[in-house]
Write a structure and sequence with these properties.
- The complex is a heterodimer of chains A (about 775) and B (about 80).
- With about 775 residues, chain A is of the alpha/beta class.
- A seven-stranded mixed β-sheet of chain A has the order 5-4-18-17-16-6-7, sandwiched between helices. In chain A, strands 23-28-24-26-25-29 form a six-stranded mixed β-barrel.
- The radius of gyration of chain A is 25 Å and the shape is globular.
- Chain B is an alpha+beta fold.
- Chain B has a single domain (about 5-70), classed as Alpha-Beta Plaits.
- Chain B has helices spanning about 15-25, 50-60, and strands at about 5-10, 30, 40-45, 65-75.
- A four-stranded antiparallel β-sheet of chain B has the order 2-3-1-4, with helices on one face.
- Classes of the chains: A alpha/beta (about 775), B alpha+beta (about 80).
- The interface between A and B is medium-sized, with 32 and 27 residues.
């Protein structure tokens, strides 16, 4: 029998071994040391990890009604038993002393505890009153890529089907929207075509602005393991800053911010110029389009943009690429022609299998849709796509950015299947939701940034946020924090912990955490993962989905939400599955998901298997079996190569603001830190944010390591300690700040420019100056 | 009191000696990597005094290049 102390020692050892594995490629420990078989009276339940979009399988140990331990699920093919340092410690946040357990209502400027019944009554009456007074488009919901599938589904049904407004958007707009528009414009179907097993087949990994060692550490370990065990495997880090990923890579190529557009086009120029195009693949499966240019940056309120696709031919595309000859783009990119030719040679070599990975570097970009298109162009020209080890792979940041935000569709323009602009899609939603078809509006309203601008303008008078912390994560919070404090908008915040967002709420609703409710997530490789509730939520905390249902019932929509409290997650999932019936997006039945560590859709009913590689008829029964490849998201079955130029960032360093500001994450902290900063070991590891400077810049300004400096932009200022030659190394003229620290608000400084197509903000590029405090 | 785990980096060529030293240090358990000059150290102390004393001992071990704290559990954690 193992006692609790021995158990904790084993957990601590396992954490350290996992941490070592992320730091040191290929490290091995003797198998008897990593025997994590734990006995005793601990009950282990499977589920996905709460943090990040990789979707590692975890086993949560519960004892006497409490979650006491976490280990990696060896039966989950995603992580094969490995977790990162966040994963191992995730449950520790739930016992935080400041956990929200009772609803709080602001009265005379102070929060007063109330019962959940009273709080829900108040929220429902305020929402109803606001609609009666100002119309249905005066209320909004802002949810999350961390919402479960049932939570996202009922939010969509409530706002679009019951109330009849498209004022629903989510924080995945801030991280994944460019990936979505990239997929839709190129393939007509969202989400990657491959799966993580690509890692075991590929020879070359090109990481486009993606610090995987810190952001997707388990996948990165899998990649390093693959390099260790096979010959002829290379990792190329293509980035604007030297990171832990760069150090582990075989080659690190640094480029100037925004110039990835030119690099991708230059690679395509080289592919064509050297005769490395897969002509047969291109002839059979590819169409060529160009879109509008000089498309703006969304800096002004109520910015509108609609792209227009114009068909072109291969020769026109080839001629366009003349401007991107490697030697011509050296000045824009800072990358030598030799390095661009080297990259092209890897993509162009028919004997090498290549996977391109990316995440926020390409998505949080004012030309995010374009750069997604351009990397697809490389894979489409070479035919290196939809095959084991060959493919472009957009990774997600949040655990259900795919499953909830993208598949359920918690964006203003989306429905669980399709978009609000499409009559057939509205008809399907109306049929399943049992609402009049006319109730679902046919035009999108506010995407995330514009939603908070509308709050600032007074157009939105009621907003309810769930599972997200926008007043730390939005760009330019220096505008949106005062906006949310205005009396013109009633703010409701559902969360597990107090945050800067709940600080401005009129009503705070305590939410159940991950393992305190049953749910489903969908990860980066289209894997749907189910978990059972493992422990009770404290106090009056309840699942977000059930809060939405309670509010809907109070507002008179009870007939549309006939779910039971005990099994609402199952009933909702079974209803939702109807939207995706059919070969192209079939979701696995719940009974299957309960038994396995996730299933990759489309789920094949006949065989009970996942579809690992879409659009390839060898693996995907949804393809026209007369073709080898079938990009069935497009009516003609052809993927599109887009002609997209390089265009500069909206704000570039000048004499007054001479540095680029890049923001991002660190391995120890999850997004805005509301959970991981409450985990003592993670908080102690990185207790505060900092600003990374290049040593030459620091020397020139007389700034020493740890010295406090001001980071100042045209929007705002924050003070942080300098970090010189520590974790990351920005290029000269660039600084980097992680955004997890609510006491050092870097998003007061960032710019709310966005990609005009995806409406995803660019957190990676704006101009700042640095001053000593 | 805390159970802590560290990734320990020995000084060059001192891995075996460091393992011996740590194995003979009270409250320490050592898990060496089999193919790299790195080891995992797990410590288990019963009170503040013991923890502080152990920290001083660890600080004085010359074979340690540096220690990276990875995790810390206390009995209050549930």
């Amino acid at each position: 029998m193992m006692n609790r102390r021995n158990f904790l020692k084993k957990a601590a050892a396992a954490s350290a071994m996992a941490a070592a594995a992320t730091m040191i490629p290929g490290i091995l420990f003797a198998s008897d040391q990593i025997d994590k078989k734990l006995s005793g009276d601990i009950n282990w339940t499977k589920g996905p990890c709460r943090f990040c979009g990789v979707g590692c399988g975890v086993l949560i140990g519960t004892q006497k009604g409490k979650a006491v331990a976490v280990k990696g699920d060896p039966n989950c093919s995603v992580n094969k038993g490995l977790l990162c340092v966040k994963g191992y410690h995730q449950i520790m946040c739930t016992s935080s002393a400041d956990r929200l357990t009772k609803p709080l209502v602001k009265k005379n400027g102070k929060y007063v505890e109330t019962s959940m019944e009273e709080a829900l009554d108040l929220v429902a009456s305020k929402m109803k009153e606001t609609i009666e007074k100002h119309g249905k488009d005066s209320v909004a919901m802002y949810t999350s890529g961390q919402s479960t599938i049932p939570e996202g589904y009922v939010a969509s049904k409530f706002m679009k089907g019951a109330i009849g407004t498209n004022n629903l958007d989510c924080n995945a707009r801030l991280c994944m929207a460019s990936a979505v528009t990239g997929f839709l414009t190129t393939f007509g179907a969202d989400e990657p075509m491959g799966c993580y097993e690509d890692i075991e087949h590929a020879n070359v990994f090109v990481l486009w602005g993606n610090n995987m060692a810190e952001m997707h550490p388990v996948l990165f370990s899998r990649m390093l393991d693959n390099r260790l065990n096979r010959k002829n495997v290379k990792i190329i880090d293509l980035a604007t800053r030297t990171t832990r990923t760069s150090k582990a890579a075989d080659k690190s190529i640094l480029f100037k911010p925004q110039s990835d557009l030119a690099i991708a086009n230059a690679i395509c120029y080289e592919l064509i110029n050297n005769g490395w195009v897969n002509n047969s693949f291109v002839e059979k499966h590819i169409a060529f389009n160009k879109g509008k240019t000089n498309i703006g940056y969304g800096l002004e309120d109520k910015f509108k943009f609609k792209d227009k696709a114009t068909p072109i031919d291969f020769d026109q595309y080839k001629s366009f690429l003349e401007d991107y000859r490697p030697d011509k783009v050296e000045a824009i990119t800072g990358v030598s022609a030799k390095d661009i030719k080297y990259l092209a040679s890897l993509y162009g070599d028919p004997n090498l299998k290549v996977v391109s990975f990316w995440c926020m570097g390409m998505n949080q970009h004012t030309r995010g849709t374009w750069i997604n298109n351009l990397v697809y162009n490389i894979h489409l020209l070479t035919g290196k796509i939809s095959q084991p080890g060959n493919g472009p792979f957009s990774l997600t940041g949040q655990p259900s950015a795919c499953g909830t935000a993208r598949e359920v569709g918690t964006f203003t323009h989306k429905l669980p299947k399709g978009v609000v602009m499409n009559k057939k899609h509205r008809e399907l939603a109306a049929k399943i939701w049992k609402v009049p078809y006319e109730r679902i509006p046919d035009k999108p309203t506010y995407h995330a940034t514009e939603m908070f601008r509308a709050v600032d303008r007074g157009d939105i008078k009621f907003i309810w946020t769930q599972v997200t912390n926008p007043l730390v994560s939005l760009p330019k919070t220096s505008r949106y924090r005062p906006a949310m404090q205005k009396d013109s908008c009633f703010v409701v915040v559902s969360d597990v912990f107090p945050t800067p967002t709940s600080d401005v709420a009129d009503v705070i609703l305590p939410a159940a955490w991950h393992v305190e409710k049953s749910g489903l997530y969908g990860n980066s490789e289209r894997r749907t993962q189910y978990w059972d509730k493992m422990v009770e939520a404290p106090g009056e905390a309840m699942p977000d989905a059930w809060m939405t249902i309670e509010i809907a019932r109070r507002m008179g929509y009870g007939d549309l939400f006939p779910y039971s409290k005990e099994n609402h997650h199952e009933e909702i999932y079974n209803e939702y599955r109807q939207f995706h019936a059919g070969k192209k997006h079939n979701m696995a039945p719940l009974e299957v998901l309960k038994k396995q560590s996730g299933v990759i859709w489309p789920y094949i009913e006949e065989t009970g298997k996942s579809t690992q590689w879409r659009f390839n008829s060898k693996y995907d029964p949804a393809c026209n079996q007369d073709k080898d490849f079938d990009f069935y998201g497009k009516p003609d079955g052809k993927a599109v190569i887009w002609q997209r130029p390089y265009e500069p960032a909206p704000e570039i360093p000048d004499n007054e603001y001479p540095f680029w500001l890049n923001t991002g994450r660190v391995i120890e902290h999850w997004h805005t830190g509301s959970m991981t900063r409450r985990i003592p070991v993670l908080h102690q590891a990185v207790p505060n944010a900092y600003v990374e400077l290049h040593p030459d810049d620091a020397k020139q300004m007389g700034i020493r390591n740890k010295q406090k400096v001001k980071v100042i932009s045209r929007r705002g200022t924050t003070i942080l300690p300098a970090s010189i030659n520590e974790r990351g190394l920005p290029t000269k003229g660039q600084v980097f700040v992680p955004f997890f620290d609510e006491s050092m608000m870097i998003n007061d400084v960032t710019l709310d420019a966005f990609c005009p197509i995806s409406k995803e903000p660019d957190y990676k590029k704006c101009a700042v100056r640095i001053e000593k405090v | 009191m805390p159970i802590k785990s560290y990734v320990a980096f020995p000084r060059k060529g001192e891995k075996e000696q460091l393992i011996k030293v740590l194995e003979n240090t009270k409250h320490c358990e050592v898990l060496p990597a089999t193919n790299k000059e790195v080891l995992v150290l797990v410590t288990d102390t019963k009170d503040d005094q013991q923890e502080e004393a152990l920290q001083q001992i660890l600080d004085s071990i010359e074979e340690i290049e540096h220690l990276n704290l990875v995790s810390g559990f206390s009995e209050k954690i549930t």
